[in-house]
Request: fold
Amino acid sequence: MFKAIQLDKDDAGATRAAVVEIDDAALPIRDEEHVVVDIGYSTLNFKDALAITGRSPVVRRFPMVPGIDCAGTVRESTSAQWHAGDAVILNGWGVGEAHWGGLAQRASLKPQWLIAPPAGLSAFDAMALGTAGYTAALSVIALQRAGVKPGDGEVLVTGATGGVGGVSTMLLAALGYTVVATTGKTAEADYLKTLGAHEVLDRALLSAPSGKPLQKERWAGVVDSVGSHTLANACATTRYGGVVTACGLAQGMDLPASVAPFILRGVSLLGIDSVMASTERRVEAWALLDAHVDRRKLAATVTTVDLAGAIATAPSLLDGKVRGRVVVDVNRND
Reply:
């Protein structure tokens, strides 16, 4: 038996979340090559919060164990790639949406979904970074590959008090970039500066409809986890030849923008997908995080809860009331 958050639909179609005990025999992916993982830590991400609250239909079947990432050790394996005792990390692959996920003490997973963490990264630190940190690393790598260098000018990070934004700020600053962070929590300016932000702006400067397809040029690069008008305004204020990465939709899935920045200023808009990225890209992203994220700064971004605490925290995360990362200690009972 193991404990997990389980999501079900009630008679009215509403999502119900509860911490339950599940028999090991109920674990999916047992009739094919699989790896059973004893989970140490998971996280509460934006998508997890949507699943737990039912505010968006991200869960594809019920009952479901949510949790799009986890870190732990292999309990048993039918794969030659993994052996009992191996440390592993999981991010994405539809886990927590179509397959039982990481907000549990145990999971049965496909071997190709897993990677080994860098040698210096503990399971707790891996989940303090989690999918948010891994997505941030993919975004930073995309900027680098597109030719954005530290001396080229300011790099904008939107939603900076969130998980992706906070880790992006730390990574970019550590790599020598001048980071300008935006947030709706202006009282958190000092916190963002400790992470490496050179300047902190009120998100209202970018989040409102502007009606201007081209605005004053400022950014050499952008890491956006917000979408909607924020992303449109970020594109409109990016300098000639600049690069914008898009990885989130906290403000909305729409993009009320013009083609003007792309065809008149040569701005590039790069989509960042963390769910189905190749193993090679994942390993590269985690190596970047291991090498350049200050563990002390990372610790300042983390709140730790148990499984029941993850359920309780989910609405606040969606409402923008949570700073940084939420690590879930799946074996703790508060």
Observations:
- The chain is about 30% helix and 25% strand.
